UniProtKB/TrEMBL annotation:
Presence of the UniProt keyword Protein biosynthesis in the record: no
Protein name: UDP-glucose 6-dehydrogenase
Alphabetical list of InterPro entries matching this protein: 6-PGluconate_DH-like_C_sf, NAD(P)-bd_dom_sf, UDP-Glc/GDP-Man, UDP-Glc/GDP-Man_DH_C, UDP-Glc/GDP-Man_DH_C_sf, UDP-Glc/GDP-Man_DH_dimer, UDP-Glc/GDP-Man_DH_N, UDPglc_DH_bac
Pathway terms, separated by semicolons: Nucleotide-sugar biosynthesis; UDP-alpha-D-glucuronate biosynthesis; UDP-alpha-D-glucuronate from UDP-alpha-D-glucose: step 1/1
Superkingdom of origin organism: Bacteria
Annotated residues for binding of NAD(+): D30, K35, T86, T122, E155, K266, R331
Family to which this protein belongs: Belongs to the UDP-glucose/GDP-mannose dehydrogenase family.
EC assignment: 1.1.1.22
Spans traversing the lipid bilayer: none
Species of origin: Thalassobaculum litoreum DSM 18839
PROSITE patterns xref list: PROKAR_LIPOPROTEIN
Gene Ontology biological process terms, A to Z: polysaccharide biosynthetic process; UDP-glucuronate biosynthetic process
Length: 453
């Protein structure tokens, strides 16, 4: 079976490389010729564990190809995946599918025989129907089935999530298209992993509903954390206490600086706006979106409180800039909200991230970078842990105590061993637990970050 993937972004490249590794003949198309040249040379433009190896291996065995001309990969394809970007379009949060439409218009005249066209990009509910109409008029003689095949990959574990997913969702209206898609996922289904075949709208909704539910879980536990701080509880224990209830589940209950990344913020907003277009209000998810946006800014107050409410003479060390560990992605990262605010308020901001610093240098102004964590912490009054990189957990308490000017860590990921650090004279201010430093809930007590509320 011949597979073509349009778009070598994060989703397209992972899917293309993994299908090639399953043994299918895969061609990935990208308009960007320099990217195609780099990929042919084995250079993977994103940081994703395991991906470089698979791209190398499948190019060497002849299963994976990269081209920039549609003509070279569309006519013979049995399945074409559209995996181009669908960024947020407007204030309302709807997804911009112009790249999906442009790709469809370009490929339509080149179709031959029976072809399944599957959307892997996260597209607004109803896009499948719209593409159906597009192909009926742009390729009236071709035998085409439009399928929705959403991806549930996490950055940093995308290859594993592709090969060992919890489930595969195929939204198809025609039986032949469902069978073709199922054949592609046979290596996964053979391992007992459920492959759900549903109608197209159900698949489109499932993608948004999954991400919106997980994002809402995070927004919820973050507000429980605020309550714990006032009432004297510990959010980590509350998460255990509720998460052991199998109806709730123990994942995505880590309180932190708010959800970021390329999916949750975008997909929650698109879920709300897609629903509104159909006259349905998503009050729960709307509330999660607003709570999350406010949180990213109001946690700046937590840092100020750690310096007696005034950062103007303080040197702040920011540890971690990526939206989560395992990626260099800054999209919608809490750092994008917090770092500029810290630069505005503090005497000096230094930052460190094990992989995101090259991207950060093009993003932030007024920030100094420490090549090493020690350099970043040297002389700092307060260190703020923004990203849950495991290496920060391993920091030597003696080094921390000896390097910083005032020994305070604001641990927005609750990842440090507070008892050991405190035994070495380093105070740790966490999330959702009683603090040694007086840390009132910022949005009720301060003017900071009100723009976001
Ligand atoms: C997410 C979905 O998990 C994935 O299925 C979908 O395909 C794309 O979006 P990703 O954005 O890579 O994946 O990251 P994820 O690991 O889900 O984390 C998203 C955000 O939530 C991060 O900012 C993370 O720090 C935050 N998070 C996650 C929490 O704050 N607490 C948690 O308990 C879990």
């Amino acid at each position: 079976m011949k597979v073509t993937v349009i778009g070598t972004g994060y989703v397209g490249l992972v899917a293309g490389a993994c299908f090639a590794d399953f043994g299918f003949d895969v061609t990935c198309i990208d308009k960007d010729e320099s990217k195609v040249a780099a990929l042919r040379a084995g250079t993977v433009p994103i940081y994703e564990p395991g991906l470089t190896e698979i791209v190398g291996r499948t190019q060497t065995n002849g299963n994976l190809h990269f081209v920039s001309a549609y003509q070279d990969a569309i006519p013979n394809a049995d399945v074409i995946f559209i995996a181009v970007g669908t960024p947020t379009k407007d204030e309302g949060g709807s997804a911009d599918i112009s790249a999906v439409i442009a790709a469809s218009e370009e490929l339509a005249p080149l179709l031959r025989g029976c072809t399944v066209i599957a959307t892997k990009s996260t597209v607004p509910i109803g896009t499948g129907q719209r593409l159906d109409a597009l192909f009926r008029s742009a390729a009236p003689d071709a035998d085409v089935a439009i399928v929705s095949n959403p991806e549930f990959l996490r950055e940093g574990s995308a290859v594993r999530d592709f090969v060992e997913p919890d489930r595969v969702v195929i939204g198809a209206e025609a039986d032949w298209a469902a069978s073709t898609m199922r054949a592609l996922y046979r290596p996964i289904e053979d391992r007992g992993i459920p492959v759900l075949v549903v109608d197209r709208a159900t698949a489109e909704i499932s993608k948004y509903a999954a991400n919106s539910f997980l994002a809402t879980k995070i927004a919820f536990i973050n507000e429980v954390a605020d309550l714990c701080e006032q009432a004297g509880g510990d959010v980590r224990s509350v998460a255990d206490a509720i998460g052991l209830d199998t109806r709730i589940g123990n994942q995505f209950l880590k309180a932190g600086p708010g959800f970021g990344g390329s999916c949750f913020p975008k997909d929650t907003r698109a879920f709300v706006s897609s629903s509104e277009r159909l006259g349905i209000r998503q009050r729960v998810v709307s509330a999660a979106v607003h709570a999350n946006e406010a949180r990213k800014l109001h946690l700046v107050q937590r840092v100020a409180d750690a310096c007696d409410g005034d950062l103007s003479n303080a040197r702040v060390a920011v540890l971690g800039l990526a939206f989560k560990a395992g990626t260099d992605d800054l999209r919608e990262s809490p750092s994008l909200f917090m770092v500029p605010e810290l630069v505005r308020l503090a005497d000096e901001v230094r930052a460190h991230d094990p992989v995101a610093m090259p991207v950060a240098r093009d993003t932030f102004t007024g920030v100094h970078y420490g090549e090493t964590v020690d350099e970043c912490l040297d002389g700092a009054d307060v260190a703020v842990i923004l990203t849950d990189w495991p290496e920060y957990r391993e920091l030597d308490p003696k080094m921390l105590a000896g390097t910083m000017r005032r020994n305070v860590i604001v641990d927005l990921r609750n990842m440090m061993d507070a008892d050991t650090l405190e035994a070495h004279g380093v105070s740790v201010v966490g999330i959702g637990r009683r603090e040694p430093v007086d840390a009132p809930v910022a949005h009720e007590t301060s003017g900071l970050g009100q723009a976001a509320e």
